[in-house]
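Researcher:
Attend to token order:
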Amino acid sequence: MGVKVAKFGGSSVADVIQIKKMKEIIQGDPDIRYVIVSAPGKRFDEDNKITDLLYLCHTHKEHKLPYEQLLQVVHDRFTVTAVNLGATVDFSQDFDDIKDALEKGCSSDYMASRGEYLNAKLIAAYLGFDFVDSAQLIVFDEKGKLLDEETNEALSSELKKHDYAVIPGFYGTVKGGDDIKTFTRGGSDITGSIVARAVDADVYENWTDVSGFLMADPRIVDNPKPIHEISYKELRELSYMGASVLHEDAIHPARIANIPINIKNTNFPNDPGTVIKAHHEDKEYNDIITGIAGKKDFTVIAIYKNMMVRERGYVRRILGILEDFDCNFEHIPSGIDTVSVVVSNKDLDGRLDELMEAFTKQLEPDNIECFENMSLIATVGYGMNRRKGVAAKLLSALADADINLRMIEQGSSEINIIVGVENKDFEPAIRAIYNAFA
């Protein structure tokens, strides 16, 4: 008998029907011993997520507006769900505590976390599992950074006392106090991964409303192939470039402990999903690429200076200017006398002219050009470094689709090729690359 940790997202616990599906999954697999739940999501298109309602309660209180009716909606939803499930749980004291906290000026983090807290209590009662609050076990420092080792030690020690438990996702507390601190939205994925590491799980199952990853965005490519297996490195590349089934930071704790992650579909539990492993098995690759992902709205600043290669510290100075603007860079493709910096428009925040002026004054380039409205597309796969002509095939596909290539860069690990195209060519470029390799 192994140990599995299973996280169920908001769509998987949105209503009675979904929660019953969850129970069938858990009862059908005795290895699932630790369950992490999100707050209930939308039950239908016009519905509200519980987390959004709780944030709204907090906003109303901040602006001295009535919030009681909104809070009652949340109370009623949990109460009705419990009754319909036949679960014995009384939320009266919990909602008294929430109202009292609101009146005393609680933080938005505290308020948002109550969705996971209340749902975990409900699910624990319904399953007959222990309820283990993640407060005081998942620990952040005062700046909001997760304290990995302290968290792992605290969770491991506590969960050894429980053979079966439900743990709320999304939040913990600031070290040395009771202040609730949340992860970013989608942070229950991170909680699940942290718990998996703490109990040394054999598998971390992440249950959602899709059957794993697809090779490309189905909104761009019709019926893209599923990805049955992917490495942590490949997933990191695809997640960074916009693939969004799993929260990026949820990869890290499981990766440290070398725990496979299986993305599964609550609505189709027999689908194999996508298994994320530390390394691909040593086998012949049938697929050259694993997946394609990309993001829009970048600016490329191309700097040319004769004999740049002999001018020490030139790139360091570029990075120093970006740091002065509190601006991250995405990529820095370079040549002998040229270097380009790729910056997200979001980071630029309307300061492109100021940045260009700083580059011109401090770097004294012979020429500087700016290309706005750019997109980056990453083609990722371990099979790429085992086959000849991959880059040529990719470039030919773009050329045949009449797409103007602005930039190309290959990572040192040789598992990704990144190309830059204009925003207007983003979707056609992804389709062209997919059709060339799928």
Residues 108-127 form the longest helix (20 residues). The two ends are 38 Å apart (CA to CA).
